[in-house]
Amino acid sequence: MRYEEQIVVMRAVEIRRALDRIASEILEKNTDIQNVYLVGIRTGGAHLAERLRRRLTKSEGEVPGFGIVDIGLYRDDVFSGSDSSLPVVGTTEIHDDLTGKDVVLVDDVIFTGRTIRAAMDAVIDFGRPGRIELAVLIDRGLREFPIHPDSVGRIIPTNRDERVVVELTEEGFEEDCVLITPKAGHNDSEEPMLAAHGQIETEVPPEPKPAKKAKKSSAKAKTATKKSTQSSKATSSKTKKTTQKTGAKPARKSTKKPAKAVN
């Protein structure tokens, strides 16, 4: 049986509702919108941060701060490996002092937590924020760093043989969606992945019919009775043969009368 190589776990309407909810949570935690500074992690996080800024502006009538951070030089593996593995460094666009600001880091997916750790290092280079919050569209679990988002669009349990892909219209896609696909070279795990996300039903072997069970039990009982009868006959025959061989005869009851006394 063949399955599709990817499954859709969120569509445009679900992404829109998730961002509405995240925006509401940001407002609940930050009463002073003018002190809020949204920082999107390039690339997907930057687009989502811009959408959140529009929502907050529409709701409060005030425009929060906005910036984009690239973590290329802050990765913990940036200088490991050969020269061919050096990262492509993008542009960080933060033009304000972040000291005392309520910074909200925004990303599309949180996985191990290493990207968020690198983004926090990059943010601190622009001042000492009053606090840093984290808002993500997807939390796929499997954390390697003790980092947890403050606002989450959806939690989607995954395994390491899967990829979570967020497609946004800002990147040229026809519509927004979130996909889960197996990593290259891990097609064997495709069926378990689809079952885990509710795309296929787990096959359950049919239960044996009661009539067949009863038939089998009856047949077994007949066989056991037959074997028992054969065993009894064999034992009787063996006893008879043993008696004939030894010449032993069964004892007879005496019929002699007692002798009369002679006078």
Task: Please give the structural blueprint.
Elements: E1 7-11, H1 12-29, E2 36-41, H2 44-60, E3 65-69, E4 102-110, H3 114-124, E5 131-139, E6 151-155, E7 162-167, E8 177-182, H4 190-196, H5 210-246
Parallel strand pairs: 2-3, 2-4, 4-5, 5-6
Antiparallel strand pairs: 1-8, 7-8
Helix pairs in contact: 1-2
What key phrases describe this protein's structure?
263 residues; alpha/beta; 5-stranded parallel sheet; 3-stranded antiparallel sheet; 5 helices; 8 strands; 19% strand; globular
Low-confidence stretches: 188-196, 199-205
Shape: globular
Please state the structural category.
alpha/beta
* Main sheet record: 5 strands, parallel
The CA-CA distance between the termini, in Å, is 116 Å
Q: Figure out the total of helices.
A: 5
Give the ordered list of helices and strands.
Answer: EHEHEEHEEEEHH
* Count of strand segments: 8
Structure write-up:
The chain is an alpha/beta fold and 263 residues long. The chain contains five helices and eight strands. The protein has helices at 12-29, 44-60, 114-124, 190-196, 210-246, and strands spanning 7-11, 36-41, 65-69, 102-110, 131-139, 151-155, 162-167, 177-182. β4 (102-110), α3 and β5 form a beta-alpha-beta unit. The N and C termini lie far apart (116 Å). Mean pLDDT is 80; it is low at 188-196 and 199-205.
